[in-house]
């Protein structure tokens, strides 16, 4: 209540809008001082919420800010969101192509950061398959074994992931 009282005192001096902006800035600044892993967890929580809500574009905008991250959890989610954005009907053909190649790079980077991340293997396989659509049938067939290996590795790491089991079945 003391914090609220002080805030209200400041609020009388500032307009209601500036007060809210000021308080939000203070709150965000406080979070920035917390250990980096907390920030990553916060972004992941927000990303998972947006994914579950079907907010594809917002999710991509959130995660693309972290494209240079060293965290495989952020990177595979960025690969997935890039791919999902590429799949939208409102995305232009050139954007689809760029997002498809970007998604593969993000998945590859996620694997480089953590080879034991099942989701990174799953999304690497999915994204590699998508790139084959642009590279032609010969490349797609050539990548098929690599894709299968990544799906199998994902299943070894997480045998209960229904999506990966489904994908290996389709393969």
From TrEMBL:
InterPro entries: RMD1-3_a_helical_rpt (IPR049039), TPR-like_helical_dom_sf (IPR011990)
Location of this chain's protein in the cell: Cytoplasm, Cytoskeleton
UniProt-recorded Gene Ontology molecular function terms: microtubule binding
A GO cellular component entry from the record: spindle microtubule
Transmembrane regions: none
Pfam families in alphabetical order: RMD1-3
Domain of life per record: Eukaryota
Keywords: Cytoplasm, Cytoskeleton, Repeat, TPR repeat
Similarity section: Belongs to the RMDN family.
Assembly behavior: Interacts with microtubules.
Protein name in the entry: Regulator of microtubule dynamics protein 1
């Amino acid at each position: 209540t003391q914090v609220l009282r002080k805030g209200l005192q400041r609020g009388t001096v500032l307009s209601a809008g500036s007060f809210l902006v000021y308080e939000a800035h203070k709150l965000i600044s406080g979070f920035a001082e917390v250990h980096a892993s907390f920030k990553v967890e916060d972004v992941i929580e927000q990303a998972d919420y947006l994914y579950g809500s079907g907010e594809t574009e917002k999710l991509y905008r959130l995660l693309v800010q972290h494209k240079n991250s060293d965290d495989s959890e952020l990177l595979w989610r960025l690969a997935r969101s890039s791919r999902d954005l590429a799949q939208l009907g409102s995305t232009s053909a050139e954007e689809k192509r760029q997002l498809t190649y970007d998604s593969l790079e993000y998945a590859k980077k996620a694997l480089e950061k953590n080879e034991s991340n099942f989701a990174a293997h799953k999304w690497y396989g999915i994204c590699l398959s998508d790139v084959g659509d642009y590279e032609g049938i010969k490349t797609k067939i050539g990548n098929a074994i690599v894709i299968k290996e990544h799906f199998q590795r994902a299943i070894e790491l997480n045998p209960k992931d229904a999506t990966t089991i489904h994908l290996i079945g389709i393969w």
